[in-house]
Amino acid sequence: MPYFENCIGAIDGTHIGARVPPELQAAYIGRHGTPTQNIMAVCDFNMCFTFVLAGWEGSTHDSRIFQRALMEPSYHFPFPPTGKI
Question: What pLDDT, in 10s, does the model give residues 25-48?
C-alpha cells in the first residue's frame, strides 16, 4: 500500500470492435488487424469511472489520446488535487 498512498485512481486504454465504412477502415485497424476504437478510461478505487474518452481510431497510440485529454480544456480531464497522483 505505501506505493499507492497518494494515488486516487487508475488510467487505462482498451480497444472496442468498430463497424466503419470500408473507405474509413484503414485508420481504425488496430494491432490485431480488425477495426477498433481506442478508448481511454479513468476510474477511482471505488471502481467508478471518473472520465472516459471514446471514439479514437484503433491505430491511435494510447499516449496521443492521453496527451490530447490533458491539453484539450473542453474534455474536462479530472486532474488530481495537489499532492495526489
Answer: 999 998 889 999 999 999 998 999
Burial class from Cβ neighbours inside 10 Å (0-12, 13-18, 19+) for residue 38 reads buried
Cβ-based neighbour number of residue 70 at 10 Å = 11
Nine cell digits for residue 67: 496527451
Four-point Cα dihedral 51, 57, 62, 66, nearest 10: -40
Show Cβ contacts of residue 70 under 8 Å, excluding neighbours closer than 6 positions. 77
Strands 49-57 vs 9-17: parallel, antiparallel or unpaired: unpaired
Q: What are the residues facing 52 on neighbouring strands?
A: 41
